[in-house]
Design goal:
By secondary structure, this protein is α/β, with parallel strands linked by helices. The chain is built from 20 helices and 22 strands.
């Protein structure tokens, strides 16, 4: 190789080496740069880590401080908690799941009186054993092992019932144990000694109060008797005095004595009833009774207070509803008396309407009865509708009272209705009127009364002339329900337009005005109507008959009586239609069917009445009450005489005083009933006359065979009503026509 080549090769080698060097330097530089960056990152990381470590260090020390504080606070809280637990008078203990005591306060351990064995670490069973062995608790007659077993069974049950134990110290402790989380049990031993003593005192006070209440009832019973006996004289004599010739002033005095006496009696009855209900001593005595009749009796009693008023009283008894039910007739009558009495009292103008509808009880318990008493009176403000059912509550307060009353009537009524499992409510609008509703479900009693009278075929129309809208409507409905044509008109003029003709029967309201002085019956007769007239009278019915009416019914009259009268007169109307001629004279004439006309029948004998009464004055009062009646009256002075009089000649009706010497009224009743059973003699209706107004007496008397209880003072109206109702068909009517109204 020549030199230039060598040089060239050397130069190339040098150049290559220089390039390689450059490359390596570049790589080195790059590696250095990366190293520096890495070193920087590393140092950053170190700085960061150091900072974090610092923060962590700070935090740890904070946490430690807090932990220390918390621990201190926990200790304080625990100390306070235990201090609190220690200060409470009641025992407190905690048990773990294995029934070992964890902690207990001093009160819990107090009964154990420093016994070291009892404290944290003792088991529940061991503690009970100590209780028994040391006689700490009264085992109430249990054997020790049985007592412990019972206590353990209670403690281990799912739901631990509270239990009261008595300690030897006389303390009463109520144990209340509750299972907590993890099986722990917290036990409280509450000292209820004061409560137990207080309860015992309360029981004693209650017993004393009950004794006082019994004494009060007895006092009320006696007081009622004591007040009623003299009141018998006052009201009875005032009643009789009113029937004598008096001048106007004297009459006012007598009426005042009578009404004040009666008001006083109502008051006594209300107070007595209420105290009876309060003492829950009132029981119902269900018996078969006639609801329609009961309503009529109540309405009849109300009539005197309506005599001079502008208010009509009517009954709308659903014609398809039974009338005989099983219930406490006396109490049903009392409910009605309160409701109808209020309606009459609070109504100055318009009407009081008792409506009865019903339907068979879907549950098969008899009949659901809806009874409503509707009036057009002063009404009741809505905010008072509930209030008035409370005791002594009235719409008017005592400063502005214009109506009399105790405010007890509705309270008693509501309780009676509830006692019968019924409901009572009121709808009312001030100034428009009120409607009190009662719903009752009563079993239907067998109807042993004769079937309703049938109206004979051939009666063309029943013309009803009645000025009172409600009563006209009701009569028309009853007639139409029989399938007859009814024409109801409000006046005599309208009746004339309906042109009564042979075959028609006229039902005439006695209060209709003819425009002249003459009565409506006379007016109709003068107008040429010769068919039968049934007069519905509010006043003395005698006048109606004298005027030419064919029958007279006192209003309100029962559906049965109304239908019977229609059937009776219908015979004549039908006869007239057939012959189209006037039958002429009525009195004493016989109808085509051969039945005597009303008033023409001559009954065979006078009704026989026996009155047993030992007190001479009372016999005198009774005698005067019935003086005007066509009856055959016998007095007995004691029960013995009453039984003898019955055996000698069975009366149709007996009035029986209860407290009598020798044989009292209940025993005499029993003897009469037994004699009637043994001999087949007729068993008379026996009405008790008693001065004992407490309800229990009446109930007891009814249970002992008396049919009704009249309390003294005897009311003429009730006695006459009783006599009129009990009169058998074969007797002469005991009440002369004019007395019928007196009886109302
Ligand atoms: P009393 O009638 O003796 O005051 P009640 O308990 O029978 O007591 O009635 C309470 C009150 O309810 C009555 O005072 C009266 O304010 C009101 N009240 C009851 N019935 C009626 C009625 N039909 N119309 C208007 N207010 C009535």
């Amino acid at each position: 190789m020549n030199e230039p080549d060598l040089l060239a090769r050397e130069r190339r080698a040098r150049l290559a080496a220089e390039r390689l060097l450059d490359l390596k330097q570049a790589e080195l530089h790059d590696a250095n740069r990366r190293l520096a960056a890495h070193a920087r990152a590393l140092s950053d990381e170190i700085v960061e880590t150091r900072e974090e470590t610092e923060t962590l260090k700070e935090r740890t020390s904070d946490a430690l401080v807090r932990l220390e504080t918390a621990t201190a606070q926990t200790l304080i809280a625990e100390r306070r908690l235990w201090q609190s637990v220690e200060t409470i008078r009641d025992g407190f203990a905690v048990w773990d799941a294995s029934e070992v005591m964890v902690a207990a306060n001093a009160a819990y351990l107090e009964p154990f009186d420093g016994m070291e064995a009892v404290g944290p670490g003792i088991s529940y069973a061991e503690m009970l054993r100590i209780v028994v062995d040391e006689g700490i608790a009264d085992l109430e007659g249990s054997l020790p092992d049985a007592w412990i077993a019972g206590m353990l069974a209670r403690w281990r049950g799912d739901q631990i019932a509270d239990r009261v134990i008595r300690l030897w110290s006389g303390k009463s402790i109520q144990l209340t144990d509750r299972r907590g989380e993890g099986g722990d049990t917290v036990s409280l031993a509450l000292d209820i000694t004061d409560r137990v003593r207080y309860e015992a005192e309360l029981k004693e006070a209650h017993r004393k109060a009950e004794a006082a209440s019994r004494a009060k009832s007895a006092f009320l019973a006696n007081m009622s008797h004591e007040i009623r006996t003299p009141m018998n004289g006052v009201v009875g004599m005032a009643d009789l005095l009113a029937d004598t010739a008096l001048d106007e002033e004297q009459r006012l005095f007598v009426e005042t004595i009578k009404t004040s006496g009666e008001a006083l009696l109502t008051l006594i009855n209300d107070v007595l009833d209420y105290s009876k209900i309060e003492a829950e001593k009132l029981t119902l005595h269900p018996d078969p009774f006639d609801l329609e009749r009961a309503i009529h009796e109540v309405m009849l009693l109300m009539r005197p207070s309506l005599r001079d008023s502008d208010v009509s009283l009517a009954l709308d008894y659903d014609i398809f509803m039974p009338t005989r039910f099983i219930g406490d007739a006396g109490r049903v009558r009392q409910i009605l008396t309160n409701l109808v009495g209020n309606a009459v009292k609070f109504t100055r103008k318009g009407h009081v309407l008792v409506r009865v509808v019903g339907f068979p009880d879907p549950a098969g318990n008899g009949q659901c009865i809806r009874l409503s008493v509707e009036d057009t009176g002063v009404g009741i403000p809505p905010d008072m509708a509930e209030h008035i059912f409370g005791e002594f509550n009235q719409v008017e307060d005592e400063r502005n009272r214009s109506f009399e009353g105790t405010g007890l009537g509705l309270a008693i009524t509501q309780r009676l209705v509830r006692l019968m499992r019924g409901d009572i409510w009121v709808d009312s609008e001030p100034g428009v009127g009120s409607c009190f509703g009662v719903s009752l479900t009563l079993p239907v009693a067998e109807d042993d009364s004769p079937p309703l009278a049938q109206i004979p075929e051939g009666v063309s129309r029943i013309l009803i002339a009645d000025a009172q809208d409600t009563s006209r409507l009701i009569l028309a409905r009853q007639v139409e329900a029989l399938g007859l044509a009814a024409v109801a008109v409000p006046s005599l003029a309208a009746l004339a337009q309906a042109a009564p003709a042979p075959g028609d029967l006229v039902v005439l309201d006695g209060g209709l005005s003819s425009g002249a002085e003459e009565s409506p019956v006379r007016h109709l007769r003068k107008a040429g109507f010769s068919g039968p007239i049934l007069l519905m009278a509010d006043t003395a019915p005698g006048a109606g008959l004298a005027d030419g009416a064919d029958a007279v019914l006192a209003r309100p009259c029962r559906r049965r009586e109304f239908l019977a009268a229609l059937a009776d007169l219908g015979q004549r109307a039908a006869g007239q239609a057939a012959t189209a001629c006037d039958t002429g004279a009525r009195k004493g004439a016989r109808t085509d069917a051969g039945t005597p006309e009303p008033g023409a029948l001559a009954p065979m004998r006078a009704m026989r009445i026996l009155a047993a009464e030992d007190n001479r004055t009372n016999r005198l009062v009774f005698g005067k009450i019935v003086k005007a009646l066509d009856i055959d009256l016998t007095f007995a002075e004691n029960g013995q005489q009453a039984v003898e009089a019955y055996m000698a000649c069975p009366p149709d009706l007996v009035f029986m005083d209860i407290s009598m010497p020798l044989v009292d009224g209940t025993e005499a009743t029993r003897l009469i009933r037994a004699h009637a059973r043994d001999t087949g003699l007729p068993a008379p209706r026996i009405v008790a006359m008693t001065a004992h107004a407490m309800d229990g007496d009446a109930e007891a008397l009814l249970a002992r065979g008396l049919d009704r209880v009249l309390t003294k003072p005897l009311r003429k109206a009730l006695i006459l009503e009783e006599i009129a109702n009990a009169c058998p068909a074969e007797c002469r009517p005991p009440l002369p026509a004019a007395e019928t109204t007196a009886a109302e």
